[in-house]
């Protein structure tokens, strides 16, 4: 078992998620999507998913 945080893995595969409130999240693709969230960008590199989030989640 690795002590590495899967959210910080630069070589990992990720999804971009969104919820009904319009919030977005980076999510490791090998972890089940939590209830209340949906995939808005398919499995891709960490950077590709972050770019999608930055482009579509512009309000904080």
From TrEMBL:
Its domain of life reads Bacteria
Q: Give every MbtH-like domain span.
A: 5-55
Its name, as the record gives it, is MbtH family protein
Q: Which organism is it from?
A: Streptomyces polychromogenes
């Amino acid at each position: 078992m690795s002590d590495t945080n899967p959210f910080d893995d630069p070589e990992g595969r990720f999804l971009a998620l969104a919820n009904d409130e319009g919030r977005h999240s980076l999510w490791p693709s090998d972890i089940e999507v939590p209830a209340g969230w949906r995939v808005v960008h398919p499995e891709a590199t960490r950077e590709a998913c972050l770019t999608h989030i930055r482009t579509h989640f512009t309000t904080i």
